[in-house]
Amino acid sequence: MTSPSQPRDGVEITMGYRALPGQQEDRLEKRTVQPAAGDAPPWDANTTFAVVGRDLDRVDGLAKASGRAKYAYDMTFPGLLQAMILRSKVARGKLTGLELDEARRMPGIAAVVALKEIGAKVRFVGDGIAAVAGTNVHLVRDAIEKIRADYEIEEHNVDYLVAENAPLLAGDGQIDEPWPEKDAADVEAALAKAAIQHTATYRVEVQTHSSLETHGGVAKWNGNELDLWLSTQATFGCRGELMRALQGKGIDIAALTIHAEFVGGGFGSKISAGVEGLAVCLLAHAAQAPVKLMLDRFEEHTTTGNRPGALMQARAGVDEKGKIVAFDWRSWGHAGFTGSGGVAVPNYYTGDAKVRRDHKDLNCDTDPPRPMRAPGYPQGWFGAELFLDELATKAGIDPLTFRLQNDREQIRQDQWRFAAQRFGWEQGRARQNAANARVLWGVGLSSARWGNLGNPGRPPHGITCRIHQDGSVETRSGAQDIGVGLKTVMAMLTAEELGIDVKLVKATTGHTSDPSGPASGGSTVTPSLSPATRHAAFLGKQQLVELVAKHLGVPVADVDCKGGSVGTTKARLPWAEACKLIGPNPIDVRGQRFANYDGRPFHGSQCGVQMAEVAIDTTTGFVRVTRMFGIQDCGLVIAKKLAESQVLGAMIQGVSYALHEQRIMDKRSGRMLNGDFLRYKITGSQDLPELECHMHSLANGHDSVGAAGLGEPPSVASAAAIANAVFHALGTPVRHLPITPDKVLQALASRKG
Amino acid sequence: MKPFTYVVPKTLAEAAEAGKQANTLLKGAGIDLVDRMKERLQTPERVVNLLPLKDDLAGVAVDANGELRIGALTTLTQLEQHQALAAPELAALRASAAMTATPHVRNRATVAGNILQFTRCWYVRSEAFHCLHGGRGPTCLAMTGENRFHAVLGWQDCVRVHPSNLAPPLLALDAEYSTLLDGKTRRRKLSELFPAEPRAQNPEHTLAAGEIVTALHVPKQPANARSAYCESREKQSFDWATTACAVRVVLDGGKFTAADVVLGAVAPNPLPRPKAAALLVGQAPSPALFQKVAAAAFADASPLAHNDYKLVVGKAIVVQALEEATR
Predict the structure, then answer these.
(1) H helical segments located in A225-296
(2) Average pLDDT of A543-571?
(3) Digit-coded pLDDT (tens) for A287-328
(4) Which residue of B has its CA nearest to A655?
(5) Which 713-742 residues of chain A touch chain B by CB within 8 A?
(6) Which residue from A208, A202, A282, A204 is spatially nearest to A242, judged by alpha carbons?
């Protein structure tokens, strides 16, 4: 079916954005795009919206606040068994014996399963050994204590900085090792010619995801069919993973449906079902009863991944005009026993410079990293942006001027100027701290980028749209909303396309019985599913329009759906009346995620800028972040309030990363010491600065909606901006996150010295 | 949690009787005890809940002599909000009650519970570690391990710190405590509640089995007395102090005539620093004097590998407290 609005020679759209408040120039471009046959016509910079972009509340906010929203953790059934996992206390070795029989005989125990075979390697403290299900957690814990696990213990190391191939560090923490020779000639020649040169080493500690809902789920078998309520950010991925694993164990399984309608956060840690996901299915199968297995906070901190620590070093030079001419970067990531501790750095400052980058992962005997909001970016941006401020300071250039001189992105050029004005950058830089001041003030900035415009999926992702005779509308995706707002986005897009009130639309997510969608990873869900949602509503609308046209006796082409009614300019039916034409079978259509339009979108990635102000007590070393401002582009802003919430949330997480969070390991035992919420410190409400953000909505022209996601983009800049503000306040950088009082005092002492 | 017998006494005598039995723990609000029981760090056979005795053991009152009686089960919120604590000489006590944990905790946590807290040492508090504390192992693991939050002063074989916020100001205010044991009420100096030798095998307090703290007593303060309490943390709320200091001073004619300085969170006991305080007496307040007192308060410090920052911060907190008390 081809829409009349799609001529074969394409559709001309206007991409870009109108001047930001206080600025003069619009950044608009015209382009012709070729929507797929049957797709909804593209929205662009000239589209006027009734619903999209408005400040609506989260559609499931009340359900969540009132407890009606049921998370995996909340699921319960008659006869539900509780379960726990026996964890290795050994950091490295081999499992040589596992005696489960005594545990099986303990009172109230329904099932015990081994999670490791004899002879298997044990890789870190917390590695899963066996799992037990029983009538309550106390009896299960009793049984866990009766399991005898024997190990052949090997020497372990949990400090990646002393792992094999780790670089040598000088006493002051700076890397004390020659730069590699490979591809060195160009960058060294450019450095030699530079007017100003700088070299420094940076470090970040391990941050855990700390989702409020821990990992785990509730499994319930019915014959050979399994329903699993799982706290996950990848319903379809986990379904595939668990089907393979269960079949691999020889279990007869005909159907597996994952339910994740509400998920209490993931931040990247819940893409795999993990040991606990498989264990709960196996226990429920063995016990022939529903089983609940949710991790406790210590397990959550120690076995479900983390944002890896990293050691980074940069050297660079600028010419007389303050242009970066050489940028040499190397990093080492804390990869755990397997996995990647990769680090990314900005590439838009160094367009014409000689650039070299090198990264190595260092393995040691800890839980490996998992993606966490912009994997590798907050680490690298902290190092690179603080390094650039140090370089600019050495060259006598204001950090903002330095960015404007070197940043090649037009969007960010506008954002830098806008943010500077809104935040009061010049006043912040000009503020003088008295020589003997107890409190030092400073301001800092950082850029951000992320690049994801969604993926169609193979086969393509879809969305179900149903329009019922009673006027209610359903929009359904099998993908998960991990709390950021997919349901609200789907409801708003559907209401926009149908010209109705959002309250008429019920959005449902997270059941794999509904059409497929991507994992919540890489900020892909909104850009992947927003055009599919719109397409579904568009198809439903066409069917309703046909019914109404027939009813009114007018041509289909004359009928539209807007303002809560359906009809022509002369004769219109209110939405409720129009829907009565549908009959008992609802309009039930499936929208599709088509590929992005061929050709260049307005911008291939997302741009952002953040600025921060700090006040530091020089007597105690205590850093208070007092103000932060962020401007963030995510293509078309659909649900403004939720988009802002994503940006502000990322800034809060950034304060926490900059000042508070760090995993502290006991080297002798290989065990995390602060695996709770008392000593693993997370920014609290009293620590929050005044936060403000501005959503930079732009028409990106990559699909019919043109949206991007916000999981990663706003997470990139915050810690870097805070570290730069600390540098400004102290006059000397703190090159190691988190910036705790002891490090500030050290920096102050080095300044005096 | 392991199964246990839960005793709900109707009278103080009944509670005291039950508390004397072997392997029995007394529970106030249970803020920390319940957590430790859930983690099986503590597996008592019997728990005596003292909260039903609130009518007798909670509340703040001032007697005819101006002495403040604080019932053991008074919550931190009740203490902080009591009008008697508006007096400037009690500002230290009020401040410490007000900055403990969060409003949720303060609404439940009791004064005696705060003072009798179990250590927060991350080695002691994990069943995975077998350290010297409580005789579970041969050495203090924190001494040579990760010790950024541990003691810098007054430690012997165990480098835990005493976590109570209320103890330093109460000591500075010369408080006493009453207990009930074997039907007898005893009243002693608060300093006697803490072990003279804070060694690994000694608990955080000197109470006998079944001995119940019934009240704290803060004597009427001298004329012109002022007090203040400050602490350093890594977060602005819901965080443990890294260092703390309570001071009480008496200023007469522009000079200190009496002074007390008590440190918290830096030693296994809340730690009075009489030598440092003595430097104040006979002197007029000045920044240089406060610095000198702060230095003296940490004069015999022995920091560990990761906590020498506490000396700098701790001294700053002593100065802050003195500034606040003389403002």
Answers:
(1) 235-248, 274-287
(2) 97
(3) 999 999 999 999 999 999 999 999 999 999 999 999 999 999
(4) B235
(5) 740-742
(6) A282
A663 to chain B, closest Cα gap in Å: 12
Are residues A666 and B146, on separate chains, in Cβ contact within 8 Å? yes
Q: Which pLDDT value is given to residue A213?
A: 98
> CA of A149, closest CA in chain B: separation in Å?
15
Reading the block at residue B9, the tokens are 């006494």
Eight-class DSSP state of A72: G
In angstroms, the CA A497 to CA A539 distance is 10
Q: Do A685 and B237 touch (CB under 8 A)?
A: yes
**DSSP conformation letters of A547-582:** HHHHHHT--GGG-EEETTEEE-SS-EEEHHHHHHTT
Q: How far is residue B115's CA from residue B163's CA, in Å, rounded to a whole number? A: 8
A741: chain B residues, CB-CB within 8 Å:
232, 234, 242, 309, 313
In the predicted structure, residue A633 carries a pLDDT above the cut 80: yes
Share of chain A above pLDDT 70, in %: 99
Residue of B nearest to A620 (CA): B313
Q: Which amino acid is at A241?
A: E
pLDDT one-digit tens code per residue, A164-208: 999 999 988 899 999 999 999 999 999 999 999 999 999 999 999
The pLDDT value given to residue A3: 45
A656 touches chain B (CB under 8 A): no
Bond preceding residue A178 cis, omega within 30 of 0: no
**Cα–Cα dist B243/B298, whole Å:** 11
Strand order in the sheet with A148-153: A121-122, A93-99, A148-153
Nearest-CB residue to A741 (from B123, B128, B234):
B234
Q: What is the ipTM of this complex?
A: 0.96
Chain A residues with CB inside 8 Å of B236's CB? 624, 684, 686-687
Residue A629 C-alpha from the chain's centroid:
20
Pinpoint the alpha helices (H) of A22-66: 61-66
Q: Among A727, A654, A623, A713, which Cα is nearest to A388's?
A: A727
Q: Which of residues 116-175 of A touch B (CB under 8 A)?
A: 138, 141
The number of C-alpha atoms within 13 Å of B141 and in the hemisphere containing its C-beta is 23
Please state the separation of Cα B122 from the chain's center in Å.
19
The whole-number pLDDT of residue A4 equals: 45
Q: For residue range B179-237, what is the model confidence (pLDDT) as tens digits?
A: 999 999 999 999 999 999 999 999 999 999 999 999 999 999 999 999 999 999 999 99
Of A138, A619, A668, the CB nearest to B1: A138
How far apart (Å, rounded) are the C-alpha atoms in residues A237 and A258?
10
Q: Supply the DSSP string of A495-564, one letter for each residue.
A: HHHHTS-GGGEEEEE-BTTSPP---S-TT-HHHHHHHHHHHHHHHHHHHHHHHHHHHHT--GGG-EEETT
